[in-house]
Amino acid sequence: MKLRKGSDSAAGMRFGIVAATFNEEVTRQLLDACRQELTRNGVAAKDVEVVQVPGAFELPLVARALAQSKRFDAVICLGAVIRGETPHFEYISAEASRGIGQAARETGVPVIFGVLTTDTVAQARERADPAKYNRGGAAAQSAIEMARVMKGIQGKADRTTSGRLTGQKRARRKR
């Protein structure tokens, strides 16, 4: 059995970050921690593009667009949805989660769910605090790991099919 992790360096990789501005105090901390973790792993500032959107509901659309551009090895979505007195929390968090996962499946590019879903503002602040949970940094680590895994898988696929014609290419060549 093979364990596939990829190389140890993230240098030369490109990352898109989509950050919601709603709950700005929390999302700013997530974004700062995410950027710091990417830098700590060798990612140059020029290889990180940040796009801000109004809230968590808007994250999937922009994440999908960034992933479809094929300019990034992974896309990181950051936001905070805090439970209130209405069912709004359930709708927004469910749609953000579904849409972010769908963006990854449709594009084949890792799209990381770095959206806090908490019951209170205090919980969100604690999870965004780099000295405590550091969920922004954790999202960056997930993005790096997934980018490495996908590069390893895609590199393996390229090596196994190089020099051979696939069935579709053979069919076109016969015409």
Architecture overview:
With 175 residues, the chain is α/β, with parallel strands linked by helices. The protein has a single domain, classed as Lumazine/riboflavin synthase (Rossmann fold, 3-Layer(aba) Sandwich). The chain is built from six helices and four strands, in the order E-H-E-H-E-H-E-H-H-H. It has helices spanning 24-40, 59-68, 88-107, 121-128, 135-161, 167-174, and strands at residues 15-20, 48-53, 74-82, 111-118. The protein has a four-stranded parallel sheet with strand order 2-1-3-4, with helices on both faces. The protein is globular.
Map the helices and strands.
Blueprint: E1 15-20, H1 24-40, E2 48-53, H2 59-68, E3 74-82, H3 88-107, E4 111-118, H4 121-128, H5 135-161, H6 167-174
Parallel strand pairs: 1-2, 1-3, 3-4
**Average predicted confidence as pLDDT:** 87
Largest sheet: 4 strands, parallel
CATH architecture label name: 3-Layer(aba) Sandwich
Q: What CATH first level would be assigned?
A: Alpha Beta
Q: What is the helix content? A: 40-55%
What is the end-to-end distance? Answer: 42 Å
Helices and strands, in order, run as EHEHEHEHHH
Quick take:
The protein is 51% helix and 17% strand. The chain has 175 residues and is an alpha/beta fold.
List keywords for this structure.
175 residues; alpha/beta; Rossmann fold; 4-stranded parallel β-sheet; 6 helices; 4 strands; 51% helix; disordered C terminus
